[in-house]
Amino acid sequence: MKQMKPVMVFICCTLLSIGNTRAQDMDKTIISIDLKNASLEEAFAKVESLTPFKFNYKTADIAGIKNINYRQQRVSVRKILTDITANTPLLFEQIDNYILIKTSRNGRPHSVTLYGFVTAVNSGESLIGATVNISGNKSYSTVTNAYGFYSLTFPAGTYKLNCSYVSFEDNDTTADLQHTFQKNIQLALKENAPLKTVVVVTKATDTRNNVERTGTGYHRLSIATIKKIAMPGGEPDVLKSLQFLPGIQTSAEGTTNLSVRGGSYDQNLILLDEAPVYNPSHTLGFFSAFNTDALKDVAIYKGAFPAWYGSRLSSVVDIRMKEGNFKKHTVTGGLGFLASRLTIEGPIKKEGSSFMISGRYSNIGALLDLSRKLNLLKVNTENNRVSYYDLNVKINKIIGTKDRLYLSAYTGYDNFFLSPLEKSTEMNWGNTTVTARWNHIFNAALFANTSILYSNYRYSYDLLEDTRNFTWRANLREVTGKTDFDLMINSNNQIKFGAGATMQDVLPGRVIPKGKNSASREVTLNNRSSAQVFAYINNEQKLSKHINLSYGLRATWFAALGDAFVYQYNADTSAVVDSTFYSKGKIIKSYVGLEPRATARILLSPTASLKFSYSRNYQFQHLLTNSSVGLPTDMWLPSDTYFKPQYADQFAAGIYKTIFNDSYEGSMEGFYSKSYNIIDFKDNAEVFLNDKIETQILTGQGKGYGLEFLLKKNSGVSTGWISYTWSKSLRRINGVNNNEWYPPTFDHRHSISVVYAHTISERVNLSLNWVYRSGGRTTIPIGTYIFYGSRYTYYGSRNSYQLPANHRLDVSVTWKNKLNPNRRWKGEWVFSIYNAYNRKNLFALYINQSVDFRNTKATQVYLTSILPSITYNFKF
Questions:
Q1: Tens digits of per-residue pLDDT, 667-723?
Q2: Contact 197, 594 (CB under 8 A)
Q3: How far apart are CA 604 and CA 599, in angstroms?
Q4: For residues 441 and 446, what is the distance between their CA atoms, to the nearest angstrom?
Q5: What SS3 class is residue 398?
């Protein structure tokens, strides 16, 4: 419509109102409308074509209001105008069949919201943790959530928009932002820079995120970084890579089990696309259960994790699978001595849906048998059965501009029989997870994700060459439904809230005789079922330019359910005095856990900050184990009448700094934690198929404290980091060690890690890792005594003996095939040496005594000596 002077508009409308015409009512005029990337002027024209209304406005008032995507069926004209002029300075008024558009006269700029998804231009993958920054008279920034979604609210005006992500080119634009609209941003992957230029691995904005981020104890590793770290067999490993970070150690040498800030490995929540994985390891922990070719993001929270995470005390490891390439079909894989991989991904419908299938297989047993036949090994390794496989599948679909659907699944399985370790037992275990998710954008400020999660952990072992001749089986199944919301109230407050429920069913053990000659009989322990209902709310608030707060509360109601017998015992639990049967679904015992979380960040300068945090975490599952390795014989049990929920309080504080134009970053964090209702076995506990397992368990407290240091180099031809951790972990269990504090087996006082990556040329890269770790703890016999003519062994205090320290150097060289941009096939050779200087690091210690108890012999078991390997990786 041509520009009209306000006086003329008023005169025309007044004359029209004098006439006795019949005007339509905006509230009663119902139409359907579909706008795609329309300007406001085009939107008004569309309404005019569908109704008798005519619009009057100043062209300058609506200039710049574009990219309107709006669709409604049978709604009033007033609702349409209210929606499309929301977050603009425009007001509207009806006079007969004319609608006047005018601006607010309060003189203050109105607020607008920019929102959308950040994706990779080459694949369409959403980018988690990408930084979106708006700068003008003031700056506003945010990071994308776990689905690549962002939302920023700020005063209308002209701004520079910058979006950045590790290893991607920045996206920079300038725009006059006068109204709320959805802007999806695509970032291009960086090409390899020539050696003579500086190879930037991490952008300055990404480095500053570690300074500006509100939370403590947080690390994110890109898959590209993980693949650069030297690993045994040239096989990239997620969990072993995390062990090079401060405060994160392995429970046992060479294994993937994590001890985070002095906690046990069952106190870590391992998530794959939000579904929990209860045994994330292969070959007794030598490999993790995650194929890096199927992954796109790995993050870990130590202790003070946000309110939307729960059910563990020590840490959360959040692993996200690839979504699948939306643009083209690709195949990647690798052939190695220890494992081989193949991944296929591509669009189902270009730009609309995609898939990803990834598999990995390892047959280490066959390799050991071959080594024996070639006289490369001196020990007997014949007829070994050591193998595993992984399979990851994911499909997703984009539905319009506001909805996305995801379906992902994982399954893995291990078969383990290694005669040098154990000739009489063959073990099997595996995990299966399924995740179904729906993302929905309600409006510019409200994003929701609804998930249904399934997890199944099954484990068993078979007795071989034994008269008992049976199979022992157990499993754990869990189903969760939940909805999470992201609400951007304004530029200073971002709220996350949600709720959900979990059902869990545990079969502690079942014995199945094999064959008619078996001396065993079939025995099945009662299932242990439980339910949880949880809700949380968390607000990240910007108090000032220098102070940010993040605070929230998580509440969980937990119930142990029937059907089950609950026994009552005498004072020392040596005899049953009564029992009660609870039918299926009936509540046996319930608990409520309130978990407050709070963190504060004080920005000392643009390159330095102080952070403080407090959190209380609850854990309603217990792991019964006497191993630091993580065996299939370990038993998960939910809380009940006798096993109260574990909970812990943790305090942390740290200082964070970047230097030399953000090329280097450093941090120092201190922590103290106190945990309650942790469990341990009685001395000489009888565990196998014990339906009264509570009589063999004692409870108590734990505490841990320490300091963590990290220095990281982010740019240049040489990158990497050095980390050092000093920590102490203690436990006090009623009835153990004279009720005095003692160290757990995974207490390691000092830990040093060095990770180094160097670009020798465009085709050759070198990686070095060195790690040092103080020895763990164990209990050994310290003498014998004679009682009534018989000799007995007596032991020192619990875990009073410190094992030797472990240290190791790993080296790998990656040699890429000749670069040819016109060739689809891209390959590289990875030459790696694990434990390069052949250090004999202790894996297990066995104490053997003669029949008369007069002689005691300690036998040390080493996991591996020097281990060279070659892997070929390819992509086309």
A1: 999 999 999 999 988 877 788 788 888 898 999 999 999 999 999 998 889 999 999
A2: no
A3: 16
A4: 6
A5: strand
Question: What is the rounded distance in angstroms from the CA atom of residue 478 to the CA atom of residue 480?
Answer: 7
Distance CA 707, CA 709 (A): 7
Q: Which of 437, 354, 332, 301 is nearest to 120 (CA)?
A: 354
Tallying the residues shown for the chain, one arrives at 876
Taking the C-alpha atoms of residue 845 and residue 862, their distance in angstroms, rounded to an integer, is 9
Taking a C-beta distance cutoff of 8 angstroms, is the pair 110, 90 a contact?
no
Radius of gyration of the chain (CA): 31
Q: Are 310 and 556 in contact (CB under 8 A)?
A: yes
Residue 75 burial by CB count (10 A; 0-12/13-18/19+): exposed, middle or buried?
Answer: middle
- Helix or strand or coil: residue 60? helix
Residue with tokens 């995650």, as numbered in its chain: 290
Evaluate the omega torsion of the peptide bond into residue 683 and state whether it is cis, within 30 degrees of 0.
no
Pairing outcome for strands 295-302 and 218-221: antiparallel
Distance CA 843, CA 628 (A): 10
Amino acid letter, residue 55: F
Structure tokens at 655: 């200082």
Tracing tokens 């060690």 back to the chain, one arrives at 737
User: pTM of the entire structure?
Assistant: 0.85
Token pair 């300055």 is found at: 204
Give the residue with greater pLDDT, 796 vs 196.
796
Residue that is written with structure tokens 């994706």 in the block: 119
Residue 758: what pLDDT? 94
Nearest to 156 by CA among 176, 182, 183: 176
Using an 8 Å Cβ cutoff, are 456 and 475 in contact?
A: yes
Q: What CA dihedral angle connects 365, 367, 372 and 374, to 10 degrees? A: 160
Helices (H) and strands (E) in the chain, counts: 8, 55
Q: At what angle do helices 77-84 and 40-50 cross, to 10 degrees?
A: 180
Among candidate residues 594, 600, 593, the one with its CA nearest the CA of residue 539? 600
Q: Which H/E stretch holds residue 201?
A: none
